[in-house]
Amino acid sequence: MPLYEYQCKSCNNTFELRQKFSDAPASICPTCGGEVQKLISQSGFALKGQGWYGDGYNSGGAKQAVAAACPSGGSCAGCPSAS
Q1: What is the enclosing helix (H) or strand (E) of 40?
Q2: Residues 36, 49: contact at Cβ < 8 Å?
Q3: Cβ–Cβ contacts within 10 Å for residue 5, how many?
Q4: Which residues, other chains included, contact 34 with Cβ-Cβ below 8 Å and sequence gap of 6+?
Q5: Cα radius of gyration rounded to whole Å, the chain
Q6: 49-60 b/e with 16+ CB inside 10 Å = b?
Q7: Rounded CA gap, 26 and 19, in Å?
Q8: CA angle, residues 71, 72, 78, in degrees to nearest 5
Q9: Are 41 and 23 in contact (CB under 8 A)?
Q10: DSSP string, 43-81
């Protein structure tokens, strides 16, 4: 479930709520009972492990991946590895 951040318009209390996509947005501050607004916050996205970059899109692995995919070992004129 996503984590949403809210801020109270009355007391400036900032709080987070874990809600389903189908849940209605929060409207009441848990501290003072005032009106709240949803904040736009940074997501917690992180890439871990080798992934696509380590498998052939970095500077060292790209030439090896293209040469391995070419049936003639990279010697045909149409291959990107021929240059």
Answers
A1: none
A2: no
A3: 13
A4: 8, 9, 10, 11, 28
A5: 25
A6: eeeeeeeeeeee
A7: 9
A8: 90
A9: no
A10: ------SSHHIIIIISTTHHHHHHHHHSTTSS-STTSGG
Place of tokens 């992180």: 46
Which tokens hold the place of 40? 């736009």
21-34 pLDDT tens trace: 899 999 999 999 99
User: What's the confidence (pLDDT) of residue 32?
Assistant: 95
pTM over 0.90? The answer is: no
Specify the residue for token string 């947005």: 25
Which amino acid, residue 71?
A: P
Residue 43, amino acid: S
Taking CA atoms, 63 is separated from 12, 68, 75, 77, in Å, by 55, 9, 13, 15
Q: Six-digit token pair at 63?
A: 């030439």
